[in-house]
Structures are given as C-alpha cells and as structure tokens.
Design a protein that fits this description.
Elements lengths: L2 E6 L4 H12 L6 E8 L2 E8 L2 H10 L6 E7 L14 E2 L5 E6 L5 H10 L9 H15 L7 H11 L5 E7 L2 E10 L4 E4 L4 E4 L11 E4 L4 E6 L2 E6 L9 E3 L15 H7 L1 H9 L3 E2 L4 E2 L8 H6 L2 E6 L1 H18 L3 E5 H4 L10 E7 L5 H12 L3 E6 L5 H5 L2 E4 L12 H19 L5 H22 L2 H10 L5 E6 L4 H15 L2 E6 L17 E5 L5 H13 L4 E6 L11 E5 L7 H19 L18
Parallel strand pairs: 17-18, 17-19, 19-20, 20-21, 22-23, 22-24, 24-25, 25-26
Antiparallel strand pairs: 1-4, 1-10, 2-3, 2-4, 5-6, 6-7, 7-8, 8-12, 9-10, 9-11, 11-14, 12-13, 15-16
Helix pairs in contact: 3-4, 4-5, 7-13, 7-14, 9-13, 9-16, 13-14, 13-18, 14-18, 15-18, 16-18
The protein binds fructose -6-phosphate.
Fructose -6-phosphate binds next to helix 9 and helix 16.
C-alpha cells in the first residue's frame, strides 16, 4: 500500500511533499518520511506514526531543497518503526528511494548483496531494492549522464514483485527516476516543475496535467523535462490527460471527521450516481459506459461480481437485486478467491469488478485473470483515473467524489444504487413492464429525500450508541437484500470501534450463533417491512428470550416492532431493492458515534489503509 510523492521544480520541496502526503495518508499511516537533495547532499527525516509526527520533526529541522521524495507507509515487511520508514538509502547513503509494493524475491537479492559484503540496517524489502540500485549505480561508468536511470533499470530487471518507486542520488542532484509495475505512479507536469505520486489527489492542487505510467515504464525527470523508457521496450509514449479534480472537495469543512462528512454527503452522492442515467420515456436506465449493445446485454446469461470488503458487500446486495429484477443468475466471489480459482466462465458471462479506489490489488488480479481467459470485464469504480478504470472493457463510474475516511460509506450506497440501475436496465430488457420500470424510477428518485430524513436521526443514534458503549461484541442479522447490510454493518462496527462484530443471514441464528447471545452481546436486526419481516421478528424473540438486547432497523410507522426491540432506527418505507441503501445509513452512523464515544481514531483506524495495493 503506501503513498509516494516526489517533487522536482523551482520551489521548496518540503511543504509540497508534506501537503501531498496528507492527501495520501489514506494509503497507509504507520510511518512517513521525506528526503531532500540540496547543494550539500541528501537529508532525510522519517518518523513512526502519523504525518503530524513527521511535520513536528520537520518544523524543528526543516529540509531545504527543490528536489525531494516522500512516503507514507503501511507496513508489509518489517515493523512500523523509524528505521523501517521510507525513504531507504543504499549502502553508500547517497541514494534514496521510496517504494510502494512488494519485492517478492528480496530474500534472494539480499543474500546476493550480503555475499558481496554489504550489511543491511533494516528488515525491509525496500532497503534491498535501494541497495540493489545503489550497487548498479556504483558499478556504472562515472561519466554516464543518465547513470541513475540505467541503475534503476538494471536493478528492476532482477526484481520480481510489484513497485511504484522513485529514486534520487546525490551525485545526480537534478534527477529523479520513477518506475512502475503493479503499484500506481502518476507523473504531474507543471510549469517548471514535475511531480511523481501514487495518486493524482497528492498533486492536483498544483497541476491538472498528468500521465499515468504503465507497468514497466521508467520515467526520468530532470530540470529540462522528462523522458520515458520501458523495461519491455514498449515504444508507446505517455498518454497525457487533464484531471478534473477539485482539491477543495477533499477538505473537511465543518465536520469533525471525514467519515461523518461522507455519511452526510450521501444525499448528493446518490444523485451523482443516478444523474443522466434514468430514461423516463422508456422507463429504464441508460448506462452508456458499459459499451455493450442491447443485443449483447440481452445475451448475458450469468454475472460474476467480484471485489473486496465493503465493495463485495455491495455486490452481495447487487446479486439479490439483479436476480430478482432481471432473473439473470449472479455469483459473488471475493476477488482474492476468484483470482486463484478456475471459475468456469464462458462467452456469455459478464464479470463485474467493483472497487471504490480502483487500485485494490486483489480486485485488479481478479479482473486480469478474467480477461486472460477472454471474458468481458466491466468495472464499477469511483476513481476515474484508476488502474481498474483503465483496464476494464467499460463500466459505470460512481461519481461519489473523494472518499477519504478509511471506512467506506458513500461509495457503498453509490455501488448499490448502480446495481439498482443495472437491475432496471437488464430487467426492462427481459421481464419488467413499463409500469414496473416507472415505479422503480420513482423509488430511485425518492432516495435523496429519504436519506436526508435518516441523517436527521444522527443525534438519536448517538444517544443509543452511548447506551451500548460498554459492550465487547455485537451481532448483525439480515435476510435477502438486507443480508449484505448485516455484513456491512458488522464490518463498519469492527473496523472503526474495534468491537468484535459478526454479520449473518438471520435464519443462521439458530444454527450456532445463538450460543453467543447474552446480556452483553446486543443483536442488530435489519427488519424493514418486507417478505422476511415475520421471520425476522421470530428471530428477535429468540434473542430476547436469551436476555440479548435487540436493536431493530425498521420501517417508519412500524409500532409493533417496539414490542420486540429495545431500540429502533427507523427508515422510510421503500421497495426491497432500494431499502438496503437506506438501512445501511443508521448502521454507518451507529458505528461512527460508537467510535467517537470510545475515543477511536475514526478516519484512520489502527492497522488499516484505505487502498489495499498488496495481495
Ligand atoms: C471497509 C473498506 C474496505 C474496502 C476494500 C475494497 O470500510 O473500506 O473493506 O471496501 O478494501 O476497497 P476498494 O473498494 O477501494 O477496492
């Protein structure tokens, strides 16, 4: 995972790098560091902990210079310590690199370098890479002007694994070399300045002109400009594009945390996901980005949905939505599993890869595996500049705006509403009548107001969270389209509060889970007025009979539920395919308030990173 920002230009590098790192902190926040080249040589400061720690150190001892590299880390090899933080130097201490990814053969390379007498200071794979590049640098003719570029390329030919990296060397004080394989790296082209970064968010405040490196690209930036080479002799040049990113969108505004801001943004993000995609005349949805003709859409006879974490939970809701509206069989698979198994796909199977970031390593692995076998792979993605967006054959953008908090919220509801649109589109080509299509459109259009009414309950939900603050464990139950919401409610609770939480299909309660029920383990039941209502109520009674507390998410006007539940979060009445978009919101708020009450670091929970770019 990890985030990289590098700068070469005519300004002081340190403030630009720090600002960029803050925008990338979502990629990891175990430690961070910065290296700056000035007339005197290479100066490095790194600190374990959040970027604030690094900033504090830099405030007392600023690093001056107009060429610098920086990194925020999510530990893979080696503990989160000052010494394991990036940048890492080579044996001479004159070369520094920042790296995102995993060097798989680092053990072999380390042994080879140790056999040459080199001694390592850390346990990291990145230090091995730095030593290897330094080794090639030292072995090259001193007269060679592009020595660093050559050393990077020589070293990378020996490497297996993934990398987005930037290297600098004090003997070439006006050069930085970036390379990519598997981990994103974008070149930002400004006026008399260039950036290299893991994500455009880090540099968008300074330049909107960017070029995404492809795998095996190596880019060398100096005071004159940049040049591109490829480890595979690919002759294609960099594709330069303009990003449309408003850095201000990622600001916190008046909210205490990004998570709360993003929960409240759902009124708008849902509208953005739907805008221009409803065809009122034909009573259907229009999703031009799918790049499929109506004939091709009609021929789809199976859909495989793949993704990780929250995105997969959205897919699980999508499975029920598409099967019930379009009668197309849908299968769900974790991307990490799908990429390894021999899934029997065929020509009429559509693979849908879902990812907010578009950079999740397992999801990219799954999509590449499906493409390798000749299948059409579409994406549902938020980050339009992502690897997933570039590698899929088409898809649907979420347009949810930047999601900064590690816990996904607005991206989830946008993904689910896109499944509703897809269900409508495929359903209208098969079984749904025009009047059913019209009813669906009305339900979709009602969502923003319904979401607003749920958000008004935030204080009520905080009071209920206060009541349960001393629990150690929690259960979440839902059926059919609400099953994915039970999983998602449990995931939100555990990832930001660290309270143990499990989500299950309601009827599984009796098949073992009921053994966990006691006075200190409350159960949340997703229980809107739908076909599973009575069965849900039966299960609530079984929990109550064993002294377990019950919190119900129920439909407004349902007074009966008060007889079975200790506490209730109400959602407006909605058909079963839009109800999950509503019922998840009280659970997002519940987890959020609980985390605040418990004093957790809501936006950056321990051990996590927003974008999981390692397998
Ligand atoms: C949970 C969460 C993660 C992500 C997962 C996939 O709140 O954020 O479970 O959903 O890592 O990330 P994307 O959607 O970026 O592929």
């Amino acid at each position: 995972m990890c985030g990289i920002v590098a700068y070469l230009g005519d300004k002081e590098a340190q403030p630009l790098l720090l600002e960029g790192l803050r925008r990338l902190e979502y990629r990891g926040y175990d430690s961070s560091g910065i290296a700056v080249l000035n007339g005197k040589g290479l100066e490095i400061t790194k600190r374990v902990g959040r970027i604030d720690q690094l900033e504090r150190a830099l405030n007392s001892h600023p690093l001056h210079g107009s060429l610098g590299i920086s990194h925020t880390r999510w530990a893979t090899h080696g503990k989160a310590t000052d010494i394991n933080a990036h940048p890492h130097t080579d044996a001479s201490g004159k070369l520094a690199i920042v790296h995102n990814g995993i060097i798989e053969n680092y053990g072999v390379l380390k042994k080879k370098l140790q056999d040459k007498g080199l001694q390592f200071r850390t346990e990291t794979d990145t230090e091995v890479l730095a030593y290897l590049i330094g080794f090639h640098f030292d072995a090259l003719d001193v007269e060679t002007g592009n020595r660093l570029e050559m050393a990077v390329m020589e070293a990378l030919r020996e490497v297996t694994g993934t990398y987005g990296l930037v290297a600098v060397h004090q003997d070439q004080p006006d050069v930085m070399v970036g390379a990519r394989r598997g981990s994103p790296l974008v070149l930002g082209i400004g006026q008399h300045e260039h950036f290299l970064a893991s994500d455009t968010a880090a540099i968008a405040a300074h330049t909107q002109t960017v070029a995404h490196l492809r795998d095996f690209d190596v880019v060398t930036v100096d005071r004159q400009g940049y040049r591109l080479k490829s480890l595979t002799h690919n002759k294609a040049g960099l594709e330069i594009s303009q990003i449309n990113y408003d850095a201000g969108e990622a600001d916190l505004g008046d909210f205490p945390h990004y998570m709360l801001k993003e929960i409240f943004e759902q009124t708008l993000s849902i509208q953005n996901a739907v805008r221009g995609r409803l065809n009122l005349e034909e009573c259907t949805a229009q999703l031009g980005g799918l790049n499929l003709t109506p004939q091709e859409l009609r021929e789809i006879d199976r859909i495989v949905i793949t993704g990780c974490g929250t995105a997969l939970h959205a897919g699980l809701v999508g499975e029920y939505i598409i099967e019930s509206l379009a009668h197309v069989p849908v299968e769900i698979d974790w991307a990490s599993e799908f990429r390894l198994r021999n899934s029997p796909l065929d020509r009429r199977t559509l693979v849908l890869a879902i990812s907010q970031s578009g950079e999740t390593e397992d999801t990219l692995g799954a999509l590449r595996e499906a493409k390798r076998k000749g299948h059409r792979v579409l994406g549902i993605c938020n980050n339009v500049a992502s690897t997933l967006a570039r590698e899929t054959d088409g898809g649907v953008y979420m347009y949810a705006g930047p999601e900064i908090s590690v816990a996904a919220t607005k991206s989830f509801t946008s993904q689910v509403v896109i499944f509703v649109l897809l269900g409508l589109l495929l359903g209208r080509m098969r079984f749904l009548s025009a009047s059913q299509g019209r009813e669906m459109i009305a339900a979709i259009e009602a969502l923003p107001d319904q979401i607003t009414s749920i958000l008004k309950q935030s204080d009520h939900i905080r009071r209920i969270a206060e009541k349960y603050r001393d629990i150690d464990s929690m259960l979440f139950f839902g059926r059919q389209m609400q099953y994915g919401i039970a999983l998602e409610g449990a995931l939100k609770m555990k990832e930001i509060t660290y309270i143990h939480a499990e989500g299950h299909p309601t009827a599984e309660l009796k098949h073992g889970i009921i053994a966990l029920v006691d006075e200190k383990t409350p159960s949340v039941f997703l229980c809107p007025k739908d076909g599973a209502y009575d069965k849900n109520v039966n299960n609530m009674q079984q929990v109550k009979a064993r002294k377990g507390s019950v919190i119900a998410v129920a439909t407004e006007g349902d007074e009966d539920i008060l007889q079975h539940a200790d506490d209730v979060f109400y959602i407006p009445e909605a058909p079963e395919y839009t109800a999950p978009i509503l019922s998840v919101i009280p659970l997002q708020l519940f987890a959020y308030h609980m985390a605040v009450i418990l004093g957790r670091d809501v936006d950056k929970p321990r051990n996590l990173a927003k974008s999981v770019t390692v397998p």
